[in-house]
Write a structure and sequence with these properties.
Radius of gyration: 28 Å
Largest sheet: none
Number of helices: 3
Number of strands: 0
Shape: rod-shaped
Number of domains: 2
Mean pLDDT: 83
Strand content: under 5%
Distance between the termini: 52 Å
Structural class: mainly alpha
Low-confidence stretches: none
Length: 106
Amino acid sequence: MAEYDPDRDIHDVEDPRLTALDRKLRDAKAREAARTGQVPTSGDGGYSLGNRVLSAMIGSLVGGALIGWVIDRLFGTAPWGLIVMLFLGIGVAFRQIIKMSGERPK
């Protein structure tokens, strides 16, 4: 029979069942985080987010301007098609950036 030691806390005792349960819980949390995309894949999360923001801005502006230019050429509405589509492109870009800012960091 083990002798009672008042200086020893109940939490100091290592139970192999609890240790195995802790390990399984950590593994399950890691798998779930990887499945939902919450695990950082690399240390440059801010750099990749900056690239996504930049590509959203450039892509939306260029795409809107190109579509507006084509509308102006087809219907002879110069420069109104270009102006309207450019502003719509800006709106889409800001919408994408706001959506990205609400995502959890990877």
